[in-house]
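Fill in residues.
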């Protein structure tokens, strides 16, 4: 299956899983990693701010 996107679409993994209900999480992650290695997909890493105070 080939899908061509003309726009930039940002989805979380859970959102993508909801749009593709017939694929299990393991296979989806494997495919996403392959697409990332082939420079077809870009996965930005955002900093996480903790909401808990450690004091």
């Amino acid at each position: 299956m080939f899908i061509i996107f003309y726009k930039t679409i940002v989805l979380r993994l859970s959102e993508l899983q909801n749009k593709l209900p017939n694929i299990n999480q393991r296979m989806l992650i494997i495919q996403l990693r392959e697409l990332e290695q082939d420079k077809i997909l870009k996965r930005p890493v955002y900093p996480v701010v903790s909401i808990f105070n450690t004091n």
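DSSP finds two helices and no strands in the chain.
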